Amino acid sequence: MGLGSPDDATVYRMENGTLLVATADFFAPVVDDAYTYGAIAAANSISDVYAMGGTPFLALNLAAIPSDMPPEIAAEIFRGGMEKAREAGVIVAGGHTMDDKEPKYGLAVIGTVVPERLLLKGGARPGERLVLTKPLGSGIITTAYKSGQASPEVLAQAVPWMLRLNRDAVRAVHATSARGATDVTGFGFLGHATEMALAARVRFRIRADRVPILEVARPLADLWLFPGGTAANEMYFGQWVTFDPSIPEEVRMLLFDAQTNGGILAAIPAAEMDRFAEACQALDQPFWEVGEVLEGEPGIEVVARD
Amino acid sequence: MEKIVDARGLPCPQPVLLTRDALRESDTVMTIVDSDTARHNVTRMAEKAGYTVQAEEREDGVYLRIVRGEAAPQPAPAPAPAPSGGPLVLVIPSELMGRGEHEELGQILIRGFLHTLNEVSPLPDVIILFNSGVKLVVEGSPVLEDLRTLEAQGVQILACGTCLGYYGLKEKVVVGEISNMYTIAETMMQAGKVVSL
Predict the structure, then answer these.
(1) Digit-coded pLDDT (tens) for A170-222
(2) Residue B10 carries which DSSP code?
(3) Cβ-Cβ contacts under 8 Å, B48 against chain A
(4) What are the domain boundaries of chain B?
(5) Sheet holding B28-33, edge to edge
(6) In chain A, which residues have their Cβ closer than 8 Å to the Cβ of B11?
(7) What is the DSSP string of A150-186?
(8) Could you give all domains of chain A from N- to C-terminal order, each with its CATH number?
(9) Do B3-68 and B88-196 share a fold?
(10) pLDDT attached to residue A4
(11) How far apart are CA A99 and CA A186, in angstroms?
């Protein structure tokens, strides 16, 4: 199924009708601990299959390991990735490792999806509510930590969210008839929201006061410790986003902050919000209602409050 | 005494950190950066903290003069850096020109515009087409001849690859080059002037 539109992963229809979902991602360490890094990278790679509504089942390691890295450290990265994959029901079968100065790790992931459960960036419809399933801030926190501006305690606030699979969030979305979803990663919350709004030719109204942001990220934003990716997101996606003038500059930037394995952003039919909330509760999956889908000029308007 | 911070080649947030450290010691800091993101981040940080930032683009980097307060005392008050130097970029976000009741009028106008463009001065240095604008560079487009003429005159034509992919038209491109968001964003940010249809 040669999806002509950009989405979170590639979808391919096999001769028997099954839809295969394929994706790959890898990146440099975001935390010091090798095992945790491997697990976060794996969760992030697998997330793109979830973001399409799919079920992942097979993965290959993609790694770059410096030749002077102790083998037991490298082994911990792979172990972290493999155990996170196992949690997702994914078998890691081989892969490829190359030599590079800076370590990199991630997975190529294969999953399947039934057509009725396919979640697309362009699936949002006017009248739906926008939900987000993880708080923002992992980009600025990991960047500040790497440059010595944030303590391990601050970093520890972001780690559980980066480790968390998006599986349950998508299960909850699948409890409804929603068709529009994506995962929030490198383009930041507003970047991915813009992609969804443009693909669906709708307008998103975002309530800034309802978007969850990790508290420890705010002092870092005051110091303007944003990664380059966040600045690039604002420079590029800013053309489709308008802000209420009362929203402070650093909050605007946090809404553009590049995320590592961020949450699912989904458009849920208003009448099914209760069902979504119940499913989330049953799965112990947090979520925040952050806005709504409107008709009108495709793009995003961020309001301070109602 | 002006302090100089050479932040070229450093990833964010290092340029911001070094600039802020320097501002603790001096009211005037010159930070040199070589990426758009570093320039953006340093400028935003400084302006938020109540400084005025003047940027000067040179061969070897962007020189950001950061001065406490509103008015920056300039020894030789150069005229406001005119939008010269950078390329003239024309942005075409739609296959139609303008919005109105009738699509047909939008088609007539875009044909007329691109035809006329060949005869006016100055020509744009770059034309960027995105969204449905990319339909103008593919087989069957009514403006291919004019775009080819523009290209022959040295106008660079960049069509958004994501958009072509979206419409399934990547194989049908017959004029210009398929570009990516990085190049498009960079071209627009480095432009002396951007004209959007």
Answers:
(1) 999 999 999 999 999 999 999 999 999 999 999 999 999 999 999 999 999 99
(2) P
(3) 224, 249-250
(4) 3-68, 88-196
(5) B3-6, B28-33, B61-68, B51-58
(6) 227-228
(7) S-HHHHHHHHHHHHS-SHHHHHHHHTTT--EEEE--T
(8) 10-116 (3.30.1330.10), 119-303 (3.90.650.10)
(9) no
(10) 54
(11) 25
B118 at A interface, C-beta within 8 A: no
Neighbours of A94 (CB within 10 A): 7
| Spatial distance between the Cα atoms of A44 and A96, rounded to a whole number of angstroms | 18
What is the token pair recorded at A133? 């399933």
Which of A212-226, A228-242, B158-172 is predicted with the least confidence, judged by mean pLDDT?
Answer: B158-172
Topology given in CATH for the domain delimited by B3-68: Translation Initiation Factor IF3 (3.30.110)
- DSSP conformation class of B124: P
| Residue A49: band (very low, low, confident or very high) from pLDDT cuts 50, 70, 90 | very high
CATH class of B88-196: alpha beta
Taking CB atoms and an 8 Å cutoff, what residues of chain B touch A228?
Answer: 11-12, 35, 37-38, 41
Residue B17 phi, psi dihedral angles, 5° rounding: -60, -45
State the residue for tokens 């008050």: B77
Reported as type and span, the H/E element at residue A292 is strand A288-294
State which residue of chain B sits closest to A221, comparing Cα positions.
Answer: B45
What are the respective helix, strand and coil percentages of chain A, to the nearest 5?
40, 25, 35
- Lowest-pLDDT range of A180-194, A209-223, B76-90, B176-190: B76-90
Q: B40 touching A, CB under 8 A?
A: yes
Q: How is residue A288 written in tokens?
A: 């925040």
Residues of A with CB under 8 A from a CB of B: 2, 4-6, 143-144, 147, 149, 199, 223-232, 234-236, 249-250, 253
- Chain B: residue nearest A222 by CA? B45
- Give one DSSP letter per residue of A110-130, joined into a string: EEEE-GGG--BGGG--TTPEE
Shortest distance between the Cα of B167 and any Cα of chain A, in A, equals 6
Q: In what order do the strands lie in the sheet with A55-65?
A: A10-13, A19-27, A104-113, A55-65, A91-99
Residue B65 to residue B54: CA distance in whole angstroms:
5
